[in-house]
Amino acid sequence: MLYADYFDPFNCECKAYGRLKQENREDLAIRAHGYLLLTPEQEAEVEKKATGVKDPEQASWNFWGRAPEHRYLPVRAILKDLIRPQDPFSPGHVSDMWSDLEDLHRLDIIVRDINVFNYLGGKMIDFSRAWTTPHPFPTAMASYGVKRARKSDPMNLHKALIEWGMERRWDWDVIPEELIKRAAGMGTNGRYGVNPSRYDWRKWEKDPAAADTFMEHQLFARIQNADQALEPDHQEASTAVEHSSQQSGS
């Protein structure tokens, strides 16, 4: 994978759901069954039904939001359980939601996008911003940055429960005391809770040493090489600007 691939929403979901499947913990989120690459015919049919325009080539706007250079790349879709419209969660879901989040961290999945709209029936529905090891950001970040990312998940879960429950006059006793403490930067399990870095992702690798080498050196070397490749262009541009300025001054 390239560095940018680790931040692609589709890849983020695939990595998170892959980890849940590896560990037989698909109960921690809405179940996913794989992915689809839409054919041009399927894509046109979806667009036609959504917009009413029979010929997508005649459409006056970009339905799929593609950049021009991505025009002919296939649309990717993750196939998940069909969930009927319902509330994101109810008081009876809260305890399980908190334990699910702790278990996700134990599997080294940091969600990074917990909000009211990321739940249906008390279950997580989206991992498009999740970090699942091996991932370059936790590898490159200072330990404090990783701790902040870990802390943000329970903070945002607590915020989502307050936002949804306030209008519905919930009894706040349904929110676990440990979650309240964690959101406030305290807690019996430390300020940051479960430490995802203790998860052994290398057990799934055919060659753990090679995987370590790639994550620690080769992945970031590609970025450095790309930056170095751009330097001559930057130097030429700077020289051209300087030369132009000298001519203007004379």
TrEMBL record:
Source organism superkingdom: Eukaryota
Region of interest called Disordered, as start-end residue ranges on this chain: 227-250
One Pfam family cited in the UniProt record for this chain: FTA2
Polar residues bias locations: 237-250
Name of the protein this chain belongs to: Uncharacterized protein
Organism: Staphylotrichum longicolle
